[in-house]
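Q: Structure for this?
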Amino acid sequence: MALPRARAGAWAAAAKAAQRRRRVEGAGGSPSPAAPSQRAALYVHWPYCEKRCSYCNFNKYIPRDVDEAAMRSCLVTEAQTLLRLSGVRRVESVFFGGGTPSLASPHTVAAVLEAVAQTAHLPADSEVTLEVNPTSAPASRLAAFGAAGVNRLSIGLQSLEDAELQLLGRTHSASDALQTLAEARGLFPGRVSVDLMLGLPAQQVRPWLRQLEELLRRCDDHVSLYQLSLERGTALFSRVQRGALPAPDPELAAEMYQEGRAALREAGFRQYEVSNFARNGALSTHNWTYWQCGQYIGVGPGAHGRFVPQGAGGLAREARIQTLEPDNWMKEVKLFGHGTRKRSSLGELELLEEVLAMGLRTDVGITHQHWQQFEPQLTLGDVFGASEAVRALLEQGLLLLDHRGLRCSWEGLAVLDSLLLTLLPRLQEAWQQKTPAPVPGG
Amino acid sequence: MRLPAGRGWWRGRALAAWVPGAAGPAPPPPLPGPPGARALDRLYSSAARQEKVDMSRFPAENIRNFSIIAHVDHGKSTLADRLLELTGTIDKTKNNKQVLDKLQVERERGITVKAQTASLFYNREGKEYLLNLIDTPGHVDFSYEVSRSLSACQGVLLVVDANEGIQAQTVANFFLAFEAQLSVIPVINKIDLKNADPERVVKQIEKVFDIPSDECIKISAKLGTNVESVLQAVIERIPPPKVHRNSPLRALVFDSTFDQYRGVIANVALFDGVVAKGDKIVSAHTQKTYEVNEVGVLNPNEQPTHKLYAGQVGYLIAGMKDVTEAQIGDTLYLHKQPVEPLPGFKSAKPMVFAGMYPVDQSEYNNLKSAIEKLTLNDSSVTVHRDSSLALGAGWRLGFLGLLHMEVFNQRLEQEYNASVILTTPTVPYKAVLSSAKLIKEYREKEITIINPAQFPEKSKVSEYLEPVVLGTIITPDEYTGKIMMLCQARRAVQKNMVFIDQNRVMLKYLLPLNEIVVDFYDSLKSLSSGYASFDYEDAGYQTAELVKMDILLNGNFVEELVTIVHKDKAHTVGKAICERLKDSLPRQLFEIAIQAAIGSRIIARETVKAYRKNVLAKCYGGDITRKMKLLKRQAEGKKKLRKIGNIEVPKDAFIKVLKTQTDK
């Protein structure tokens, strides 16, 4: 599918101008004019990588050659199909993830954005993020992505130690990463995020903190801290299994996390989510949508989505997964316009459970207003106020329930998964005791 | 008559005898009638379908009663197969492998769990002999059963492997026979093996048992070599039973089994008198009276006879409904003609106790019925209902010994497909009470403590006692040093040490039973590369400094982990339990102190640190379905946890601490 370059350029140019004006203020930004069911975030998955990273178990493929034109055409088709199916009027953010989406050509990114803009309203100031791998992103290329409409970069820097980067199977060096970071900041000032990993095998707290300090001198306004999780089926996992590498020490990782959070706070960053830190209001609106259980549409092989298929008369939100394997996915897209492999309706309770589990990952937690959007009958107080077990967590200072809503304390955020083991059963219990809602209009 | 012997024909007869899948390799059925009729035959008396044998033609002087005794795998069952074939008791086919070992566990482990008996009719020089082969259980856990079987014999075949030589169990078995004053015929088996050294074994036998070398018979039971001369020796060297046909009936019960249609089948040896259908008999032990429905011989299946006469061995069915009514060692006599009971009767005395719980409580009823069925044929297992806060409803079972316990567990798994949690075995301790109040309460001065919760405190006790055993270890001498260290670590006292040949040593130790119930045998085997053999016999009780050890979690007592230990072992055991708990207790949102304590004194401590971080870094690409499923599954599991104080303890943690396992 040939896309008129001029039009793609037009959207991109408008976006470029808007980028400087726009800043997300506080949680979720200013309320959008469209109703929640008519808004969505869009995730686009580029499934290819140059090389397999030793820790990665994502849906990615190392191809001998990529038929990019075919992939582009399919991404465009599926984006259009799913947008129509969802009945979404307004796309609030686009995120190109992978795989290594910075391996795709800027032309492909532009084509997808243009297709989105044609199918729904894509405001000029929408956040458009591209994941970037340092080696695949010389400055000229980053500029071309900017021209295509990307206005935010997320750099998979991972470490500033060459030995660690090698262990992770990354293709770049620490100096490559810092160079890419500097170039990115020049091109997208205030709109660059970096990922840093913690808890690698044999990694020690002090040296890691020195990496973080170094990064804080160089970084922009957004940092993500991720603890390495050893995933079955990865090279790193089997090396640890075999005893060729020491298993990561969870105690040390916990210490790195605590020290890291403190250092970021010191540097003026707000920890707005378990793994995400921003200053000067540079929160990622795309990810924010996930944590607030907004709708999102997943496009590309193996992408996940959560939306109501209103265009097909659907009423309930569905969880959707696209076909994993790129060639099969493409075949399906060519045949049916989309490669949705699995769809399952989310029940009301299931959705509430997600609201709870995702919302508590953020620093604002679940506000009463936010909760009410999803559950008009039971208040947070009704659900959690009377529970003995929840009270113990409140008393321990891990959880807060007040006039603002329900949220984790600083300490509680680090052990959220343990807290959820008390909160989820409590929610189920309250749900079962709830009197059935009157049928609207009945 | 020969019956197609299904695997379960003997012990499992009531359970699986005619289930087609249960039938093992069997000789072709010689019975008239279609195979389908057999089940019906069973329902009624086996008498209905055959001519009864007249046993009066076998006077005592033509009878020989004998057993085969041997160490594990030395070829006892194979020799039995050959003897059955030679006398025409069973057909000679390739399928006769361990005909008397019916249980899967017996064949797998090469041991005999349950005594089997076969009457062999043998013609020699125009004389018709009745040779009663009374098979015995092959392990001293069953030494009481062995001793009762032996008391029905006048001689034994002591089978020794020509390659392995005398082993611990050979010694134990020999002394049982020797003490019973039986004629011992040494049979050196497996002379066909490449590494066989029968001459060396002859010398060992001479040295250890003081039996002249020319009395050893060298055979290969597998190939049938020289087996005929074993029969000849049985007739020539074993005396006929000294009995009186004209005296009143005096019959020894040396085994009993349960048949769901016919009730208890008691195996009996007649010391005096005659017994026939219709006779009224009395159990000397229970004093209950029964009417005899059927008598017969075993070859090896039941074959009804008109009567059984003094000196003969066979079975008797008399309307007993429970195996405890036909206890091994009991004497039966005719109603109104009481006799002096035969000496040596003891009720089965369990020496090893363990808790048994279904892995899942929903399996409770199935397990209950499986245990009931297994104990129908094994009155030596004691069963008491028990319950644990952590493991739910279950039982406390008493076994004769470790092997007995393992075999029982294995049979539950194999024959009933039951999966169980078996807790670490304990032994019955005793306390001699000094507190008058307690003596009044228990109505005796010396009490047996099975449940640690009943352990009386030291101030009320003049002494504690623990069971001890006399252990025999036979080993190549290169391992002697290591074995002595092992024994020392187990609080054992050496009693004797002799070389039984140039490089084999026999060690005798007095060992606290508690020290061998868990992993002694495994340790011994592993440090001797499998060459050392071990056997033990009951040696009563000895004074022991016992203490009760509590386990605490953040100061809360954990009832299910109270343990009685020897003072010298308290620290080691306490530390091991704390460590196991530490490894299996999940982290919680606060620190957990795990302590082992004797009274108020803490002897070991471990700490489970609080969770500092437990949150998934990233929900990649919006894939939260997996994460939610995981969280919900964990939350579901959390509901089932037992709470001790505010600490959530998964069942797994208890299982890891409580279940039988070898120490590191």
